[in-house]
Amino acid sequence: MASSMTRLTQTAMKWAPRLMAALEGLERLNKRFPDAPGKAAAYARQLGGKLGDVRARRSSAGRLRHTLTVVREATAAMETDRPGDAAFAARAAAWRRRANDLEAALTLADSVGGRAGRKLAADLRAKTDLLARDVIEALAQSVRSAADEADPPVP
Asked: Which of 65, 36, 44 is nearest to 53 (CA)?
């Protein structure tokens, strides 16, 4: 009896080419009729956009760009929770600046090949991870402080 992983692999091998052909057809359809009315067309456009995002994140540069996008979104969300906090606004601006600089460097690194390109990509990955860690720590602190404010300790 075949294991479930073997069955999964067999199923993937059987259906993957058909699925990829269908997805390519969907992309062509969306390009040919970008303003088609109706819920089905809207869903097709939405699905095509999501699949494009997934395809872009398969590369290491795409994953780094996605991380930088998440950092920007988390920073914006925290800023809306802290209106008037000048110190946090300065930190958020610095995070956005770092994210923009890293994305610009990533675009440049895409054009560099060989050993130098791999070293540059590794450096950018490490810097992106540090930035993400800083933002995640601030987000966790923000969530904890919001929970403490909503549920003060009982004496």
From this structure: 65
| Confidence label for 139 from pLDDT (cuts 50, 70 and 90) | confident
| pTM of this prediction exceeds 0.85 | no
Residue 109 CA to residue 88 CA, distance in Å, equals 31
Q: How far apart are CA 5 and CA 133, in angstroms?
A: 35
Interval 25-67: pLDDT, tens: 666 666 676 666 555 556 566 666 665 665 556 677 888 888 8
**Nearest Cα residue to 44 out of 27, 32, 57, 56:** 27
Q: CA 93, CA 85: separation in Å to the nearest integer?
A: 12
Give the ranges where the chain is alpha helix by DSSP (H): 4-32, 39-56, 60-81, 86-111, 114-150
Helix axis angle, 39-56 relative to 60-81, nearest 10°? Answer: 110
- Using CA atoms of 3, 7, 12, 13 in order, give the dihedral in degrees to the nearest 10: 100
| Token pair recorded at residue 77 | 């969300």
Cα–Cα distance for residue pair 55/49, rounded to 1 Å: 10
